[in-house]
Structures are given as C-alpha cells and as structure tokens.
C-alpha cells in the first residue's frame, strides 16, 4: 500500500506548495484507501475515506475528494468547490485550474469574493514561480493551462516521467513538428523508454510495441511484468492472458496457475472498466482446463501477489476530464 500511495501522490504533492498535514496513522490509512478506490474507478466508495483525511487538512485528499464529487455528479457541486478551494489555498495548482474553469462557482456561495479569472491568475503566477525553480510538475500544470507545449517539453527534458508519457502521446497523435523522416517515431520511443525506466507503469505497456516490432520478446516480457508488478491493471491483464497463452505470443512460459491468480485478482475489482468482467470470463475458461489442486495453488499465488505488490490501479491522471 505504501508504494502505491507514493505513485498516486507524486504529481499532486509536487503541485502543492505546503507541507503535508500531520495526519494520524488512521487518517493516513483512510487517505491511502480512498486514493486506491479512486484509482480503481470506485469514486462513490472513495468519498468517505478521502473526506476523513480532507477534514484533517491533507491537501491531496482535499483535491481528490473534490475530483470524486465533481466526477460522480458530472458537474461542480458546492462541496466539490469547497474542497478544491481548500486544496488551492494550500497551493495545489490543479485545484486552482479546476476552480478557474468553473463558470458558476460564485453562484454556489453567498460570500464569494474571487472570480474565475483570479484563480487562473493565481495558478499561472504560482506555476511560473515554481517552474522557474525547476519544478517539473508545475511545468505540466502550465502546459495544461494552455501556456504552450514548450512547458511540457521542458518538463520531459528535465526527466519528469509523467511529462514524458504525456509528450509521447501528444506526438503520437500527430502534433508537433518533425522535419527529419523517422524522427517522430524515434522521439516517441525514447520518451516512452525514459518514462518506463523511471517507473511509470502506463508507459511500460506502450513501450513494448517498439520492442515487439524488433522482435525483442525478452524486453516485451520484462516490461509487461514490471508494469504488472507495479499494479497497472492493463498490464496485470496482459500478463495473465499471455501466461495462459490467451493469446500465445511474446514467448511467455505457459503457467495456468499464475494466469488464474492474476485474473482472479482483477475479477475482484468492483469499479468501472472492462478488466474485471473480462477476467471473470477468462476464469471460467481456465477452470475447465485446470484440476482443483491447481486452482487451489492459484488462490495461494493470488494471496502472495497481493501481499508483495501494490493494489491494482488504472493510474488515472491527476488532472483529467
């Protein structure tokens, strides 16, 4: 759980200008649990755990509680705005951007004294100040605030692994200028490689397409496994499927026990996404191929995996829709 929390909080921590709240162990555990649920598309279930830490002053819990409330309602509610403002007042740039993009914010409060423009100005001012000090996450925020691709490129150049992932996607969509033939693909591959080596799981699963083209199947297997071991749901599914040769590719060793165990872990998820349903279907398929003693071993494998690896996560972007 601790490793997952570090992964989930990294961007938001760097986008806040204040120290973390002094949480009790129970409050910290509640925040971590809420973030886990949030990243499994279980927004409704995440509300109460996040609220515990948000009330204790944790800026990250405040921001993600605002996100959860807004996404669940599909619009900016009064409570969502309250928690965004709490996070913004602690220096969270994403919260400031959320507040600046809400046209009806002031109508939610009788004592509203700031307008949307002021929040945007604060985000840009503080973002530039931090970016000038080398804060790569602030550079990402400036890019997301439509201050130019150069901010994202600079963040990626300075080694921000999430920025490298975003920039690779930007180039893959055909944006940006490349005069030399083949330079675009070369740059995308290098960005994904750097991001993968830096430990960002979604990049690992994209990077394997380049290794696969070169038939570097050992490299493909390595990055699928690394991404799965860091909790990325898409990678766990891929590892499970290839372990059962469903389909047979990349020269994975056939291992029904491992495959069943990983599909079982995903089948337990209750949130959105197709992985849980697809995994349940795969379990039914594997059950007909495995004797009962192998299924028992698979359940023990699943238990050991959950103890030694972070909980499954979609690694949702800190500033998405």
UniProtKB/TrEMBL annotation:
It comes from the Bacteria. Keywords: Signal. Coiled coil: none annotated. Residues 1-21 form the signal peptide. This is Sel1 repeat family protein.
């Amino acid at each position: 759980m601790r490793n997952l929390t570090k992964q989930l909080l990294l961007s938001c921590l760097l986008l806040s200008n204040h120290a973390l709240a002094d949480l009790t162990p129970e409050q910290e555990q509640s925040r971590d649990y809420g973030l886990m649920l949030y990243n499994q598309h279980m927004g409704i279930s995440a509300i109460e755990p996040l609220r515990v830490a948000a009330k204790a002053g944790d800026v990250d819990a405040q921001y993600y509680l605002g996100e959860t409330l807004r996404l669940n309602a599909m619009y900016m509610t009064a409570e969502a705005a309250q928690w965004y403002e709490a996070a913004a007042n602690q220096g969270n740039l994403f919260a400031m951007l959320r507040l600046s993009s809400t046209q009806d914010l002031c109508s939610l409060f009788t004592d509203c004294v700031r307008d949307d423009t002021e929040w945007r100005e604060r985000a840009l001012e503080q973002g530039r100040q931090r970016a000038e000090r080398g804060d790569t996450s602030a550079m990402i925020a400036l890019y997301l605030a439509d201050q130019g691709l150069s901010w994202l490129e600079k963040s990626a150049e300075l080694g921000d692994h999430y920025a490298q992932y975003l920039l690779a996607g930007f180039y893959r969509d055909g944006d940006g200028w490349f005069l030399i033939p083949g330079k675009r693909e070369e740059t995308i591959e290098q960005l994904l490689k750097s991001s993968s080596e830096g430990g960002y799981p979604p990049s690992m699963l994209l990077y394997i397409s380049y290794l696969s083209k070169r038939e570097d199947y050992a490299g493909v297997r390595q990055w699928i496994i690394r991404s799965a071991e860091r909790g990325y749901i898409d990678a766990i599914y891929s590892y499970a499927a290839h372990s059962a040769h469903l389909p047979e590719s990349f020269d994975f060793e056939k291992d029904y026990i491992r495959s069943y165990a990983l599909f079982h872990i995903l089948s337990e998820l209750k949130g959105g996404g197709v992985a849980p349903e697809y995994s349940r279907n795969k379990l039914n398929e594997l059950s007909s191929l495995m004797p009962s003693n192998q299924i028992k071993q698979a359940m023990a494998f699943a238990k050991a995996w959950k103890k030694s690896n972070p909980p499954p996560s979609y690694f949702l972007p800190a500033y998405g829709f």
